[in-house]
């Protein structure tokens, strides 16, 4: 069966993700708010730049937008192809996924919340991780399309579960980032060599992807490359804390870390990389983390 | 040059560490508070069980005791061989290292704070990580002996720096453990499959050694194997928080996590494994983490 | 002008509040889910027990229910008297107030969020504090009716502002309660006489209504009288944390305290008094607060 | 019996406290590091400016210095009158009190840790609160002298207990200050009138001396009068957190608040008033608290 696939939202992630689809599908439609980006994509990767209304006539529709609110707003006026599957790769809100699943079902459209991790490098190499919530049969139908873009693709639960896992992943990363900045500042204050210290820690129980990748590649070398904006991390931690609250749970470390990420996001320049959380700590502690 | 090496403190770590020394040194002395353990070690590994006073006549003296207070108390009445190097593998207090270095120097004995990570499996396979503080020349002299027991051996700074790195490592692990329990409880409450979810997280930015090893191997499977007692982790987090305070730093995530580890340590059975922190969260949230 | 006044919800607060109205208004209607309570009130205080539909034909309609969700659910099917003012004394959610204000306005009914403080004793003595959000002219029209029940009656802002102030008040109380339990446990552990210590603190900068009233009257004497249920306090702290999050603020002390109150609420018997937060601390610290 | 009384340390508190002593004792000696302040005191209040060695020949010796380290350093070389009572009004460290009590006892000098609260206004009006640790008979002997300076004078426990109570009082104040700033920022963000809101809160369960005095008198009016330096508050919260840790307690709200006070102290100008904690929050939240 020949499927038509479309991709909506050609940001830093979406642009690279959509580039893999023509290798697997004969007809790939792309749409982006600023249309010249879609045209550039079509020229470069052999996709077709179309109108939004055309894009939603595909069999499988990927979306990758900044927030769930953007997705809801975009979907509202559309007449989507009956029988289509909407695979939403946004780092979104679980409640929104549940709502969209119900709304789209009425129009005979299936919805999966399918956020990804792996950053732009993972998008480029089609090695993303997909954490997917929604109906299991829908998941299986959309699996080949997701496999074109990712490596580890997991069905983690009902609608909203994918967004929940992504939010918790980013929340854990945020906690680890705060802890790493605090620990590094402490060692620096006591005259310890940070490079040597974290080489030890990275071979020990205190290791995290933050200590082994973020610290050396973004913070110690003062590069703070702008690949994942701090306000988006703040948003994700907010989603995670909402999940905590909705379930009436006690999560003091998550709650404290969320406060700090929010403060850092309020403090730094808009669109600063998430690693600039380190700069807030440097300001509060008068200790450079390098 | 033929060196005599001794090992003081044959606990779960020390017993396994000392076992490697006879492969590299012709004369290896061991001492333990309960002497039959030393004799068993001598019989099994070809070491010599001696008195404490004899043990401290070696050229290189390893110690591995529960706390710095134990080391200080043990050293006080001893007449240590002039020119010896004392390599203290205890997870100790930086201030104590600085004090012992000065006190022992007066007796022409060098002191290194050289705590290890890698747990009993690392001790057994001689793949421990040593994070070492103290004089760099002393470090180089003691390096071959440490290489007999470990793989990554790093000089991280002046006296006390080794203990500081170990305390911060364990503090980071403690933070990650709290965050992992909180995140897992949240996902569980929202009906997410924890195994699948953490497979995704372990391939993503939220990964830590806690999420990839501690969660599946100790908590999800309800084994809580008793290998590293929670009160010792609580002690280490206390050392880390003291370092924060002494440097007049602000470290809210470390501070919050230390409180929780201390509460868990107060709550659970004495000598419970550190992973039983999960049980405190289960009690506070009425959610099983599995 | 003769006004008809009604009171909906005769719980511990509402029952006592409605009792004052017949002194000021010739016709006072009351309604309660369990109607025998309304009849008892009518017999005792000279009010009239009516149906819910009759109650909402009054000129001024007071409501005092457990949550905003209860109020929304109750209002939905009703046909309220055109021109009426609804004075909602529930400890509710600011967003709900904004929504109700708009919805009721369409039916020519004005809505004020007008939560109260002062507990049952304040309700009994008509010395409650009203913190009121909504239209200022509506506030002025409803003022005489509120003055029948309270002493300090403040217009604090637009719709939702009253609920916001109540939520923040209760959140501050929750923070103070956690801090008082922590401080008292610390002093007790160090052998300090708590009664004498808090007599000093209550004359010093560390005083709060919690230290001067809650500690001696509910905790030190082990009475924990069941007047304000801990789950309701947990709910209020959740509302406050939502306000923090919606405004993208950093409030680490509020966030940490909210987590602890939620944990205590999960732990203790349902409907335990809010002061039983002390019992959670006693469990976590193995120190009795008395 | 005629007693000679001396006062060591004529800072903002000591200067005003010592001024009351000549009304009750015929011979009052004063000493200050910068001696012209002592001479000015002698001229103004009829005390005698003496050498430090002369000052410690009094029957009752008051001291009021910035830290316990200052007191220890000052006492070390002195030969104090046998039979004297040293009343230390410093906001000091409990461990230091225990040590000084033992050391001075060997020289037949009694020591009381007797910190005060009530600020300069309380010192001026002799309405201070004394929270006193140490031997009860010594307390009773020194009581008349303390009564010359204060109103509420309490024996709260053994040596160190006075310092502990003062540290916990200031810690509670610090928690309340953080919570008040967080709560006020939240209300401000939601458009609530802060003056009206806190008038309600001050009549409700969320009241504290911080909300009823510090907020209106120092923060809302942007005066931040420099009467109690933030680094001294940070020091006191550090003492309180040490007490928590020494007793192996879990005190998450104290721990989080201590971190924030320390951060604020690191951030603001040296010697800024403690109320400038509000300025840190304003920076982190981009919300003015007024």
TrEMBL record, chains A, B, C, D:
Biological processes per GO annotation: organic acid catabolic process
3-hydroxyisobutyrate dehydrogenase-like NAD-binding domain ranges (all copies): 160-281
Annotated active site: 166
Matches recorded under InterPro entries: 3-OH-isobutyrate_DH-rel_CS, 6-PGluconate_DH-like_C_sf, 6PGD_dom2, 6PGDH_NADP-bd, HIBADH-like_NADP-bd, HIBADH-related, NAD(P)-bd_dom_sf
UniProt GO molecular function: NAD binding; NADP binding; oxidoreductase activity
Keyword annotations: NAD, Oxidoreductase
Record domain 6-phosphogluconate dehydrogenase NADP-binding: where: 5-157
Signal peptide: none
Transmembrane region(s): none
Family: Belongs to the HIBADH-related family.
Record's protein name: 3-hydroxyisobutyrate dehydrogenase
